[in-house]
Design a protein that fits this description.
It is built from six helices and 19 strands. It is an alpha/beta fold. The protein folds into two domains: 182 residues, FAD/NAD(P)-binding domain; 123 residues, FAD/NAD(P)-binding domain (3-Layer(bba) Sandwich), CATH 3.50.50. The strands form five sheets. Strands 1, 2, 5, 6, 7, 8 and 19 form a seven-stranded mixed sheet that branches. Bound molecules: flavin-adenine dinucleotide.
């Protein structure tokens, strides 16, 4: 088995940024891009315009941006593998990183596996029911599909993702209805205002989705008003979950401590985990900012910290 100075797991903004820095520092990094675990290129592969990443005043689409990240990582000699990491062993040194097809011994590891969208346990939405038959957890991935055109679409959630998903769906829907269990949004003020002003969006406050039904595809949703306890069955062409994310840490099998909400724990102001030589960058350790720029920033930090760590154990040459 080959021994590498640095293995990076995950190919979002954090992973590729770490790779650019590490490759330029001659660490010859290997980067596992993922395969079944999520989209290679990360969450931005499922979005349209990114308007807040510095350097792109005219905006750039998520996939275009990630293509450029990858090109830059490859240019300096990163070795990219289109594979998931199945497991790591952090008790042995060098560490073991086992991919679907390729495995390495690694002197240091950067974990940048991001986070995955959550789904709610609502009758009618499960895998053997209407999941992927009008029920989705990614409006920007699926919203343009013909089955959703000119339909009443329902978005569940009240944060920035829900606002973004609802606004995106207005391009295709007859009307977008946001179902939110509280009486006000958690989203940033600017996003909430955009939603509340939009003529194609209705907000169902203090409400949840009780069930989803339809023969082959979503045809109805039943809304429960939590204040009046009234249930209303409404015509629907689709339901989109926008209720947060689960950090992708399963392959670690509990070898690193997590925060109470399931994110990888790092020493404040660093990307260092509890185990020297193992670093965490991007959304997998960040439940506060969750932005491409912060993911890229911590990817840079992780690479610099890995470089210093390798130097401290005499492995920088
Ligand atoms: P991710 O982008 O989540 O990438 C994680 C990577 O890890 C993926 O490639 C996945 O395949 C891989 N992976 C997971 N498990 C494994 C494994 N076991 N083995 C190998 N690989 C694995 N941010 C902005 O700044 N601006 C925006 O406009 C914006 N729009 C967004 C729109 C949407 C719809 C979404 C969902 C997010 C948006 N974000 C935006 C947030 C931004 O996408 C994230 O903050 C950012 O992508 C996080 O980067 P990351 O590198 O930490 O992880």
């Amino acid at each position: 088995m080959k021994r590498k100075k640095l293995v990076i797991i995950g190919s979002g903004p954090a992973g590729y940024t770490a790779a650019i820095y590490a490759a330029r520092a001659c660490l010859e990094p290997v980067l596992f891009e993922g395969f079944y675990s999520g989209l290679p290129g990360g969450q931005l592969m499922s979005t349209t315009d990114v308007e807040n990443y510095p350097g792109f005043p005219e905006a750039v689409t998520g996939p275009e941006m990630m293509k450029m990240f990858k090109k830059q990582a490859l240019k300096f000699g990163t070795h990219c593998l289109l594979e998931d990491v199945k497991l790591v062993d952090l008790k042995q040194r060098p560490f073991l990183v086992e991919g679907m097809k390729t495995s390495f011994h690694a002197d240091s590891i950067i974990i940048s596996t991001g986070a995955t969208a959550k789904r709610l346990d609502i009758p009618g939405t499960h895998d053997d029911e209407l999941w992927q038959k009008g029920v989705s957890a990614c409006a920007v991935c699926d919203g343009a599909l013909p089955i959703f055109r000119d339909k009443d679409l329902y978005v569940v959630g009240g944060g920035d993702s829900a606002m973004e998903e609802a606004l995106f769906l207005t391009k295709y829907a007859k009307k977008v209805h946001i179902v939110h269990r509280r009486g006000e949004f958690r989203a940033s003020k600017i996003m909430a205002e955009r939603v509340l002003k939009h003529h194609k969006i209705e907000v169902l406050w203090d409400s949840t989705v009780d069930s989803v039904s339809g023969k082959d595809y979503v045809e109805h949703v039943t809304i429960l008003n939590l204040k009046t306890e009234a249930k209303t069955k409404r015509h629907a062409g689709g339901l989109f979950f926008a209720v947060g994310h689960v950090p992708n840490v399963q392959f670690l099998n509990g070898q690193l401590p997590l925060t109470p909400n399931g994110y990888l724990m790092v020493k404040p102001g660093t990307t260092e985990t509890e185990i020297p030589g193992v670093f965490a960058a991007g959304d997998v350790q960040d439940f506060v900012y969750r932005q491409a720029i912060t993911a890229a920033g911590t990817g840079c930090m992780a690479a610099l910290e890995a470089e210093r760590y390798l130097a401290s154990i005499g492995l920088d040459e």
